[in-house]
Specification:
177 residues; NADH Oxidase; globular
């Protein structure tokens, strides 16, 4: 890892969604660490109802280009397609909510943090046509596409200014709503 993080919170201040990537390839050892972060993520009842398709080959990435609406994602040297398998997930008894998407989201969030720690940029891309992604990658029908994560070195140095966020008073409730 790059050793530039002073503490845990620096990671979250530094993380930004990257939409323009350089052509520099992501080193295999970094990819391995990102994939390990996916594997080690927590999930409800440790069901791990996820599958991830890793696309690194240049021709395979080129075949995925029409999945994206933004040009910058087409240059990302690493694509990770995050998939949920609801049949493998824990379901809350009280209201029958299936936690597959929650669990996949936890894993991807942890992987995005790992990418940031590695000096990589990433972007969670939900604006995709799931059927198109499934067809291109041979993903079974019962598997749900949660997102495609574009990963790579940012084309430009990231500016660390804060994005507009709601104040805590608008989103936090103590004791009762």
């Amino acid at each position: 890892m790059d050793g530039k993080l002073k503490n845990f919170y620096d990671l979250y201040w530094r993380r930004k969604s990257v939409r323009e990537f350089s052509e520099r390839l992501v080193e295999p050892e970094k990819i391995d660490r990102l994939l390990e972060s996916l594997r080690r993520a927590q999930s409800a009842a440790n069901r791990q109802p996820w599958q991830f398709v890793v696309v690194v080959d240049k021709d395979e990435r080129a075949a995925m280009a029409d999945v994206f609406t933004k040009e910058g994602f087409k240059k990302a040297p690493l694509l990770i397609v995050a998939c949920a398998d609801p049949s493998q997930a824990w379901t809350r008894r009280a209201d029958k909510v299936n936690y597959a998407w929650v669990d996949v989201t936890i894993a991807v969030t942890e992987m995005i943090g790992a990418a940031t720690a590695e000096g990589l940029g990433s972007c969670w891309v939900a604006a995709v046509e799931p059927g198109l992604v499934k067809g291109k990658l041979g993903i079974p029908e019962h598997i749900e596409i949660v997102a495609v994560i574009a990963v790579g070195y940012p084309e430009k140095e990231l500016v660390t200014e804060d994005k507009a966020r709601k104040p805590l008073a608008e989103i936090i409730h103590y004791g009762k709503w």
